[in-house]
Amino acid sequence: MSNPALLIDQFGRAISYLRLSVTDRCDLRCTYCMAERMQFLPRADLLTLEEIARIGRQLVGRGVRKIRISGGEPLVRKDIMHLFDELGALLCNGLDELTLTSNGTLLTTYAAPLYAAGVRRINISLDALDADKFKQITRRGDLDKVLAGIDAAQDAGLKIKINTVALKHQNADEIPDMIAWAHGRGFDMTLIEVMPMGDAGEDRIDQYVPLPMIRDQLETQWTLEDAADTRANLGPARFVRIRETGGKLGFITPLTNNFCAGCNRVRITCTGRLYMCLGQEDHVDLRGLVRANGADETALNAAFDQALATKPERHDFAIKDRGQAPTLTRHMSVTGG
Ligand code: SAM
Ligand code: SF4
Questions:
Q1: Burial of 262 (0-12, 13-18, 19+ CB in 10 A)
Q2: What is the CATH number of domain 17-161+260-335?
């Protein structure tokens, strides 16, 4: 490779984690993520699976050790297993982990092939265990289908982490029950503060609940001990172990407590924009480059370096007032959560 230098930013953070959005489309319409009548991007705007694999391969050559496939719902993308197979071939050849975040609706079909491609862990998003509430939050989802997907993932041998966005009026009261359920099934769980990304059709102030408040509530019934696993605590989540359930619980708190100092990740949107920070607008367009005649490794490496120079120290998400415009106009589904 012409420029094999590791990607280290101006704050000394080494980039070892890539999140790739493979589609902005989804079979659900979660109230905090998308508008009900979501206008999806024209398919021609999306990187092809070959283009995604090429960029992924080259970033592994620059020190990326972990790739998470996301979206939208990654499993609705046609022929998605080609990409998992391509990237899976990099495991033990520079790449340490290939994983995904999924809403679980299609896992009865995909769990076993994912395992066969080398995936060992998966994050599954689940914001309610009550079927009506689940339908309300996702605007269309069938809880049984997701629970069957979770069973299939477990049967296939995938280690599962449940992601739950804390929502003031929709699930805040149910969170202790969800933790007890997840830990009872042997799953770790992460709670996430809602981020003001894109218009999702509701005022963010009606959704946002600060996680320190939830943590205080949990501490009235359980003993939360800082998790000894310091590796897990290097990312944007802070983990505790709940003594009574024995399970791990993470808190992702982009609004109340910013952990950008340890950020080791970059993101590529489904349209090929390389964002160095989820919460900022600076990006470099890789699609133009990979589609340009004669685009080569050197040009891509130069684009990675250019992007790296713009990696900001931190993001500035805020939800303060009713009617406030989102911090960012782009939706999480385009960037890949
Ligand atoms: N469709 C898949 C899923 O839901 O797991 C993957 C994509 S989704 C955009 C990735 C993660 O982002 C999910 O855990 C979801 O709950 C979270 N998410 C989406 N919009 C969000 C927002 N505005 N604030 C916080 N988390 C959000
Ligand atoms: Fe779809 Fe995931 Fe967004 Fe929900 S959070 S609408 S499942 S992309």
A1: exposed
A2: 3.20.20.70
